Description:
It contains 2 helices and 5 strands, in the order H-E-E-E-H-E-E. The chain is α+β, with helices and mostly antiparallel strands. The protein has one domain (3-115): 3-Layer(aba) Sandwich (Trna Endonuclease, Chain: A, domain 1). The chain has a 5-stranded mixed beta sheet with strand order 1-2-3-4-5. It is globular, with a radius of gyration of 14 Å.
Amino acid sequence: MTMSSYKQKFGEEGEKLALTHLIEKGYKILAKNYRSGRAEIDIIAEIDGVYVFVEVKIRETDKYGLPEEAVSTKKINMMAQGAEDYLLEFDLNGDCRYDIVSIIKNKFKTEITHLEDAFWPGLY
C-alpha cells in the first residue's frame, strides 16, 4: 500500500468514526464529503435546528501537535465558502456553526474530541 492510499484509508476511517460519534450524540447527517468548487466539507449535520459544518482530522499521535491544530485559515475560509454554497443550493436558512472532530487513533487507543463552535470564518 502506498503512503497516499494509506493516508486516504486512514482519513476515511476517521470520517466513519466521526459520523458514528455525531449520530450517537443525536445529530442528523445531511451530507458527507460535500464539494463545491475547490471547497470540501467532510460532514454536514443538523441538530436542534442548527446546521453544523464539520471538519474531521485524524492522526496516529499528537507528537507533532493536536489534530485540530492542522485546520488552517485557508481551510476555514474554504469551508465557509462551501457552507454558503450548500445553504444557497438547498435554500436553507438558520443558524450554523463550524465544528472540528479531532481523532487520535493508534493500536493503543482511539480518542475522539468534538470541538463545537471551533472557529468563526472571517475572524482570522
